[in-house]
């Protein structure tokens, strides 16, 4: 018996099972960093960021970043599977006895092959365990392989279902807050309703969404790397825009109550703080100010022109500054870590929403102008005739 091989095999199998359990099954954040998943994402994401920095086009860069989340998930599952196969090969090499049909000597390479066909329950039978311990290890590995495949089958649909629920609400924000969403647009479009019930319902929906994002992204950490379908949308951008909106309402908006805004702000702030810790984002005290005085003046004027008036005075500025300090450092830290662009408080120029854009718009517009021109020519000829 090769004692060292057995010890290494046991440690490797236990490490993989523990890591898979904490990543897939355990519904809470794991603070311990010495894990396969943590090591994997630290190494691969750093390399992926380096390659991304070479891409100049924003759209292509976002498309390239969008591959990382799904691809990393598949690679992580492959690493778990290969590590289990290798670990059981070490156990079989150190503690088992085997027989090969052609009576060739059993090498460690052949035991890796034997472990792989056992793990995936192929059962060719060209290598047969002889000792009771070797047979027990083969049965254990076959059962573990079956459970692993079942976990993969259940894990992928679950994580994609959570991703779909996240993206539906982000898409709904497009017509309410612009693309990308901003606090100024959301208040300008929805803050002038005759009754505040509709605006409060929007904030209530986002309160629930923030809670779901917190739960799903802690339970399934790879979700944080999944990008939205549009390059100008992201889960962090939507979350930050809602926090910006709630901060303005709480600081003071004439004719708007802040009861629901306080509750939504609390839930959204809880989500952004916990998720910053989940992805190990680093705080940067030199982060640029997202809302300097000149930008706040533009927000105030923009909203005033659309019937939404922010309160004035040092009390408003102080309260808004305190609220921003509660979440902006965390949002900016996540944005730096995941290469996500945070939305501004107000767009520098008028932007079309995603629903207003389409691949045939220019052709349709040109055709409409041509038809309109033909109609005018015919009308002019009729007028001249009479």
What does this protein look like?
This protein has 386 residues and is mostly helical. It folds into 2 domains: 3-153, Helix Hairpins; 173-356, no CATH class. The chain has helices at 3-25, 36-52, 58-95, 108-119, 132-172, 174-177, 183-190, 197-219, 235-252, 259-278, 293-305, 314-338, 361-385, and strands at 98-100, 127-129. Helix 7 crosses helix 9 (235-252). The model has no long low-confidence stretch (mean pLDDT 84).
Describe the structure using short key phrases.
single chain; 386 residues; mainly alpha; Helix Hairpins; 2 domains; two-stranded antiparallel sheet; 13 helices; 2 strands; 2% strand
Cα(first) to Cα(last) distance is: 110 Å
| Shape annotation | elongated
The H-and-E topology, N to C, reads as: HHHEHEHHHHHHHHH
**Share of helix, binned:** 55-70%
Q: Average pLDDT value?
A: 84
Report strand %.
under 5%
Trace the largest sheet across and list its strands: 1-2
Largest sheet report: 2 strands, antiparallel
How many domains comprise the coordinates? 2
Classification by helices and strands = mainly alpha
Q: How many alpha or pi helices?
A: 13
User: How many individual β-strands?
Assistant: 2
Given as residue ranges, the uncertain stretches (5+ residues, pLDDT < 50) are: none
Radius of gyration: 29 Å
How is the secondary structure organized here?
Blueprint: H1 3-25, H2 36-52, H3 58-95, E1 98-100, H4 108-119, E2 127-129, H5 132-172, H6 174-177, H7 183-190, H8 197-219, H9 235-252, H10 259-278, H11 293-305, H12 314-338, H13 361-385
